[in-house]
User: What shape does this take?
Amino acid sequence: MVKSSETVILARKPQEVFRFVADLRNEPKWHTDVDSVPQGTDPVPVVGKTYPLKFKPFMGTTDGTLTAVDVQQDARVVYRGEFGGLQPTISYSMEPAGEGTRFTRSVELHPSGLKMLMAPVMAFMVPRNNKEVVGNLKRQLDA
Assistant: This one.
């Protein structure tokens, strides 16, 4: 199993952070591996609904999906992904922190089959990428 969790304090209210990160159309603005999201995508994910995305991992652009598995207004969003043969669970949580918001992005990945051979590389890359993505969010929202 590969796990990563990154937390940052943002100078925005939890409702503002939720509104931005829950809207998948904003992903390409801060998530370096997301190339595009269809403009007709729901601004707040609907539990059980699957959303198409184009990912651009290190080996080129690929189609993928995120399925919303938990949505708690202004507090949490959890997705199950499907891209490149991987099925990560990605969660965003927001909680008040003084005048701002403590935002945490967690990724959990269970490689299987031949992908298990890549687990040591993923164990290095996933936390590094997660840190970069959360840093991008801070720069985007605190600008």
